[in-house]
Amino acid sequence: MIDLGISKMALIGAVALIVIGPEKLPKVARTVGALLGKAQRYVADVKAEVSRSMELDELKKMRETVEGAARDVENSIQTQASDFEKSWSDATDAALEPQAPQYKHPNKNWRLKQGAMPQWYKARAGVRTRAQSGAARVARFRPPRVR
Predict the structure, then answer these.
(1) Where is this region: Disordered (predicted)?
(2) Does residue 146 form part of some domain?
């Protein structure tokens, strides 16, 4: 750009004062200032547009990379799903063959085991042997009346 120092600005101002005259110089200075402001706004708009277009290009590239990665993940999932389906079908075909009997827990009849506990142990351990309603339980443990 043009290198304007203080000395060059003073020289331009002196020449403008001589050529234009002192009456018209303020009006010309305002016009020149307005034109410079418009030029600066135009340059700023162009810079903003260029930066927006560069960001848009970057976003498009990023979108393409993300879409490519998504396609790769989708393809890998589909291949793994097909492998899983293949192994599942093999396993279900093998399941149609005769199997060993299922495991049966030896303590299945827990009622017999509960009945084998002696009454004195139940009373000592606090195991309830008879069902009582809430009102009957309160009445049972209520202190006796004193007359």
Answers:
(1) 80-109
(2) no
